[in-house]
Target: Sugar phosphate isomerase/epimerase
Amino acid sequence: MTVRQLTLPELVEACGRLGVTHVGLWREPVAAHGLEATAGLVRDAGLTVTTLCRGGFFTAADPGERAAALADNRRAIEEAATLGTDTLVLVSGGLPAGSKDLPGARERVADALAELGPYAQRHGVRLAIEPLHPMYASDRCVVSTLAQALDLAERFPAEQVGVTVDTYHLWWDDQAPRQIARAGASGRIHSVQLADWATPLPAGVLNGRAQLGDGSIDLRRWLARVAAAGYTGPIEVELFNERLWARDGREVLAETAARFLAHLGT
Amino acid sequence: MTVRQLTLPELVEACGRLGVTHVGLWREPVAAHGLEATAGLVRDAGLTVTTLCRGGFFTAADPGERAAALADNRRAIEEAATLGTDTLVLVSGGLPAGSKDLPGARERVADALAELGPYAQRHGVRLAIEPLHPMYASDRCVVSTLAQALDLAERFPAEQVGVTVDTYHLWWDDQAPRQIARAGASGRIHSVQLADWATPLPAGVLNGRAQLGDGSIDLRRWLARVAAAGYTGPIEVELFNERLWARDGREVLAETAARFLAHLGT
Model:
């Protein structure tokens, strides 16, 4: 998504030229290119798919919407398996229209996990609940902290449900470091994502994620925390940023790789 | 601030006509009208000033900036005393330019409170740390949760330092209800403010607070929580909203009073 201006073949080629061996994919471009075609493309290029983004949106109270969401998530699980990734990232969903009941919405997320967890496990896929920044609590994700995500995940086996640690969403939270240790201790850090935080935020607050090093987050310190918690998996960089999307995608990918090495290389 | 389009004399007159007997003031309009003149204006009208907003901005690392901030806060304490309110609301300040050190900035807030608490107490004024929504953590307020605000406040006597509970900033936080009880048990709920949460947020995310009832917050439930925690003081409504500011201020004030009764009246 960091370079969504690239087609999947362009992305795969650019990764190859930069020596990037792992890539996180979103469902929409995969569907546009074709699921089997994408699986073949990355396999032939020797690329490993780190995660598939995203499932979720579990908070509808309406039974029909709810059943549709579960069906869609079962498809997402199958897609993840086809792409060869073991992790499906979940964004929980916001409040249903007119609702003011955050605890109720969070409970419906748990209900959905109970239905999907075993299905995911049978497909060799782990679900990773991603807490989003509290500014998204009403319209996108009622799970706002890593503690909440773990409270949900721990109702299920770690092989079925864990969490995504994304610096953009968690950097402000003084409890997050302790929760990262908690997540690591139970083997539930299923995915780690980086983006930097900068202001002013754009209208709608969706596409203001900053390039690594351009914001307020001590990224090296956050990576040290997930490492100390035992995480040895891939690190994704996920930047939603209109200005990056307006630029040449290959250049943005190269810049991002260079920033990663500059700010996080040893 | 909800009706900043009104001059202070217009505001006082409009309050009188609506039967509003308490008003929260900001320093800037008070300074514009004159401190002594404002004190006389509200006194003559029989209005009680609930709080003065706002002191704070304690996070500068530069010694000169730091001394200037402390001096300005001593003036704010004196202004609060002159206006007859016992509460000065504090917004802690964001990260200094270029800094990525949230814990360090939070510790400088504590240092400032240690210097200002006794001064405030001598003037009969309590300091009320206001946690702001985490979306303001980098550029406005490094204190993002009620738990953090209480961790700071509890280093000092409750007569000196407490907290502001503002629904707009806290509504997403599943830990906030427990923290409200904690704040009430130690007599530290010094101020309560209401605004509703609606999306999409405007660019800069400052002026999107929704009129009571137009958003996602179960306001009645939050007021019940502060009441259960023993709070019997005034309830302020603080709406930063460009659309409300563009309308006739008397009409907005009347609408706000009506909304308060509709959504929170018994």
User: Anything to note?
Assistant: The two ends of chain A are 26 Å apart (CA to CA). Chain A is about 45% helix and 15% strand. Chain A has a mean pLDDT of 97. Strands of chain A lie at 22-26, 48-56, 87-91, 126-129, 161-166, 189-194, 235-237.
